[in-house]
Amino acid sequence: MDIYHNDEILSLLELRLVEWTHKGKELEKQKGGKAKKGAQAVKNLDKEEFKNTTPEGEKKDTTVELPKNYDPRFVECAWYSWWEKQGHFHANPENISSGAKKPYVMMIPPPNVTGALHLGHALMLVIEDCITRWRKMSGYEVLWLPGMDHAGISTQSVVESKLWKESQTTRHDLGREKFVEQVWNWKNEYGGKIVNQFQRYGCALDWDRFAFTLDEQRSEAVQEAFVRMHEKGLIYRDTRLVNWCCALNTALSDIEVDHIELDKPQKLKVPGHGDKTYEFGYLSHFLYPVKGTDTKIEVATTRLETMLGDVAVAVHPDDERYKDLIGKELEHPIIKERKMVIIADGELVDMNFGTGAVKITPAHDHNDYNCGQRYKLEQINIFNEDGTVNANGGKYEGKKRFDVRVEIEEELTALGLFKGKTPNPMSIGRCAKTGDIIEPLIKPQWWVNCKDLAKRSADAVRNGDLKLIPQFYNDEWFKWLDNIQDWCISRQLWWGHRIPAYLVQVEGVIDKPDTSNDAHWEIGRSQEEVIERVAKKYNVEKEKVTLHQDPDVLDTWYSSGLFPFATLGWPNEDTADMKAFFPNHILETGHDILFFWVARMVMMSFCFLDKLPFKEVYLHPLVKDKSGKKMSKSLGNVIDPLEVIDGCTLQTLQDKLQKSNLDKKEIQKGLKEKKKEFPDGIPPCGSDSLRFSLLTHMTQPRSINLDVNRIIGYRLFSSKIWNSVKLFLNYSKDGFELKSIADCKLSLADNWILTQLNKIITSSNASMESHIYGAFANDLYDFFLKKFCDVYIESSKVALQGKDEDTRQAALNTLFTVLDYSLRLFHPMMPYITEELYQRLPHAEGTKKDSIYLTSYPEIVEEFKGDDDLATKFDSLIAINAEIRSMFDQIGIQKNHKPEVVIKLDTNSDASFYGGASELIQSLTFSGSVSIAAADSADPSGSISKAVEGLTIFVKIVGIIDIKQEIARLNKLKGKNEKLIEATNKKMSGKAAAKMPESVKKENAKKLEKLQNEIEAYNQSIVSLKNLE
Questions:
Q1: Distances from the Cα of 249 to the Cαs of 442, 700, 909, in angstroms?
Q2: Which of 202, 416, 709, 760 would staple 783 via disulfide (CB 3.0–4.6 Å)?
Q3: Rounded to whole angstroms, how far apart are CA atoms 496 and 551?
Q4: How far apart are the C-alpha atoms of 668 and 666, rounded to whole Å?
Q5: CA nearest to 248, candidates 613, 595, 493, 526
Q6: Where do the coiled-coil regions begin and end (predicted)?
């Protein structure tokens, strides 16, 4: 079997354009478009219907011959259910307690039950599975624990929308109990989609330990955590400002608020306000009259409607303009009975900004709230929970807040008190779920005092006990934790962990309990416990005690913060899992939840277990599109991983653009680009290719620009691995005797590839240990493609097809060894194809494991080290081969031309070595013949030449190609490049250059350098050819 006879492999080789090629497009034309044929072969294969015939959970029949072509649908079917049924992913705590193995533990960041996994999730899962499989193969008892988050706000919103769409029913129509029942039904029906995606990616998760953050065990842990934190004085109830979503009627955490930056005024729609639009990005200026005088004081605000809640105007105590006014009362032009006063606050007011006077609304602004606390100002809430104005807004009661903004401007104008509007760049908080404008509202809520726990968490990183990778996130960690605010954990929802707090009513003692009175609240693990305690406290019978449980639920991040230990049995610290698997070893996640989840897990673990939950935190980069734009539905550039794994049509890709928020011009441009880039859609690439591609992209720590065409290219690389094993199996049919490498008569090439194998084993383990996943993937890729396939396999064909049985067996054993080790090296990244092919290799009886997952990850092998001097010499042969191929390519020599090559040695070159290697060079370069000439011999006639270190290469071309025609061709190519350079330079220097993204500039600079290098190569070839005319 000749590996180069496979069109799909030719496609890969010519698409990759290994180091000797400078003009792949022209080469493709000369060789009859074989790359296109390879792509067509893939397309034809994908059109064939595939059906998995292996029963669920059964092992695939690997005795049947491998199909001719690599098909990810065939390769990736059946294996996962078999792995799971065999219990390969299950971690046994007894192996830890007995000392048989060391533990390695990692929790999956539980995705939302509502979500579909995107490429960011895919990258996370690939990295974590890679770590899991590598550690398992390295001898650890590995636990990778799966889970799913109940996602309070998201899930409730989805189910509420579904109810309304199907029956115009609200949750209030159903009542709390029946609504929560509906949510559980929805979760049970749709929650499994994410689990299926985990399995499609090949994730080695311990499904026996799957944890849902709202299941019974986690509910017990959450309740216990709340009670203990309250007992420690860390949880308390207070009335403070919160982020309020009027559309959802709940408080939000900071992470649930998106901020949009307005650099100029614009009109926006607001949920609950119909199709109206409202102005944002303005400062509205108006006057407050000073009572009993003709003096007026000017203030400005971006939220004019909040003036209904104003109780003061603050000025700087040193501001001469207002010194005589401090302490004076103001007249509220709309709420006549409102008492307002001018106060001096040097902390809040900048006398050099604006008029130097600031309106104070303590109930609706964070800065004003703090000012109100300092001066004991009244907090007047003017909004209902749905965003309408309440009774404190006087005649505006019942009206929507942004309608009121417009009406107040009109009223103040009529009163002669409105001074106009000025543009004001600003940031607007919007609910991430509904898009509603966030309203700061004063609410009694439950809070966590985070100060001491935050200090311990920051110190853990400072003293090196907790390691953040990459380290540049340390500064962000410190910035947040060193300036932490108390955490509001109340949410006004029905789906979630209901707060175990009870408002107490005691007949004759507390007849009218006050929700704002902390003394009227009791915390407990059960109502029975609380009733008994209250009855004893007030010395009354239990029957006189009535409890009203807080209707609010806890912030989802509260339960997620317990995940590293609540999943192992906590609050019972004596479970086998807690003893064996806590603390975890690493947390892998995205940097966007570093504070909202990671920091809180660390704080919670310190609080309840007095230790860190994990030793390392690896923060993976953000996945962007190929041009560096953040993936977003509004931009239409989101890629569903399953669209890559299973393939999708061009129409599917274009439909996303049509649904985006882009303007029509951008949509039309995008539609053309999609058609050009994916004329037939995305072919099924399989999970292995997606996984491998994501890891190869990981060369930058903050973000990666994902090019889907590269994933398609790695499908072809999977095909390369496939065909390499097929090549070995084909040659083995003529007889293969498995031996120890030490007992084989190894050739120079055999020794060289085994030396290279040792090097890649060393670097692979080092990269995994250091979390350098991009280097791990790319180094293995280069080893397998460039060294093993492109060099060793071609060089071994002389032995494989020869008559010397010892040499042939040595080559077969070397092939087997490199393939066996390579499959194990690749397995953490590409689990499916490596399992499929591992099962096919003829291992010695009794040595084959049930699964490649249970084999040992390769470590350096002493007998593979070889002779460094010989390895260096072989490297020089590879360099000569590359130069010869480059010379061929530059002047359009094809394989069937088979020109004569003469290598003229310098006086110090090793003639005997090169003489013995001439047959090998001939095989690798597809030359007609290769001869070695002495330094003092005459130069061959009719040849072009190139001097390299220690020798000169001559390629005889006279009589093989038409020299004039070739010179004309090269001049034409040179002219094309010169036009491309001119066009690119024009783009780089035009008006558009100022707005050009940095990534595009870098790409253009690379393109210019490549084009210039090609021109230089064309010029050299033209000069050489003219000398032969």
A1: 13, 41, 83
A2: 760
A3: 11
A4: 5
A5: 493
A6: 650-677, 963-1028
At 245-304, the pLDDT tens digits run: 999 999 987 778 889 999 999 999 999 898 899 999 999 999 999 999 999 999 999 999
pLDDT digits (tens, 9 = 90+) for 485-499: 899 999 999 999 999
C-beta separation of 928 from 896 below 8 A = no
The residues with which 442 forms a beta bridge, in sequence order, are: 241
Mean pLDDT of 57-68: 93
401 contact partners, CB below 8 Å, separation of at least 6:
246, 305, 383, 387, 388, 389, 439
Instruction: Give the start-end residues of each E strand in 432-580.
Output: 439-448, 467-469, 487-488, 490-491, 501-506, 521-523, 545-549, 553-554
List Cβ neighbours of 320 (8 Å cut-off, separation of 6 or more). none
Q: How far apart are CA 662 and CA 635, in angstroms?
A: 6
d(CA 703, CA 197): 23
Q: Return the number of other C-beta atoms located less than 10 Å from residue 243's C-beta.
A: 19
Pair 529, 504: CB distance under 8 Å: no
Q: How far apart are CA 579 and CA 573, in angstroms?
A: 7
**What are the strands, taking DSSP E only, across 531-575?**
545-549, 553-554
AA identity, residue 168: Q
Instruction: Please choose, from the candidates 470, 560, 458, the residue with its C-alpha nearest in 3D space to the C-alpha of residue 108.
Output: 560
Burial class of residue 2 (count of CB atoms within 10 Å of its CB; 0-12, 13-18, 19+): exposed
Token pair, residue 10, equals 């030719």
Closest CA to 120 of 129, 107, 111: 111
Is 66 in contact with 729 (CB distance < 8 Å)? yes
Strand pairing category for 929-933 and 900-905: parallel
Angstrom CA distances, 533 to 509, 538, 545, 575, stand at 15, 9, 10, 30
Element (H, E) at 764: helix 748-769
**Could you tell me which residues come within 8 angstroms of residue 47 by beta carbon, excluding any fewer than 6 positions away?**
none
In the numeric block, which tokens belong to residue 908? 């110090």
Of all residues in the chain, the percent with pLDDT exceeding 90 is 65
Strands 545-549 and 501-506: antiparallel
Distances 546 to 505, 521, 534, 541, 549 between C-alpha atoms, Å:
5, 12, 10, 11, 10
Cβ atoms of 862 and 740 closer than 8 Å: no
Amino acid sitting at position 348: L
In this structure, are residues 841 and 819 in contact, taking their beta carbons and an 8 Å threshold?
Answer: yes
Sheet holding 521-523, edge to edge: 521-523, 501-506, 545-549
| Helical (H) or strand (E) element with 379 | none
Angle at 513 between CA 512 and CA 517, to 5 degrees: 140
Phi and psi (nearest 5°) for 442?
Answer: -90, 125
Distances (CA, A) of 54 to 115, 197, 595, 839: 30, 20, 46, 16
**Helix, strand, or coil here: 977?**
helix
Segment 813-839 mean pLDDT: 98
Q: Output DSSP code: residue 785.
A: I
Tokens of 968: 């004309």
Which helix or strand (DSSP H or E) is residue 969 part of? helix 963-989
Phi (first) and psi of residue 496, to 5 degrees: 150, -170
What is the CA 632 to chain-centroid distance, rounded? 13
Nearest by Cα to 29 from 979, 894, 959: 894
Q: Yes or no: say if 309 and 441 are a contact pair by the CB < 8 Å rule.
A: no
For residue 196, the SS3 value is helix
| Coil vs helix vs strand at 331 | coil
- For tokens 């190869």, the residue is 696
Span 363-369, average pLDDT: 94
Q: Tell me the CA end-to-end span of the chain in Å, nearest whole number.
A: 41
Which pTM value belongs to this model?
0.85
Q: Where are the beta strands (DSSP E) in 486-567?
A: 487-488, 490-491, 501-506, 521-523, 545-549, 553-554
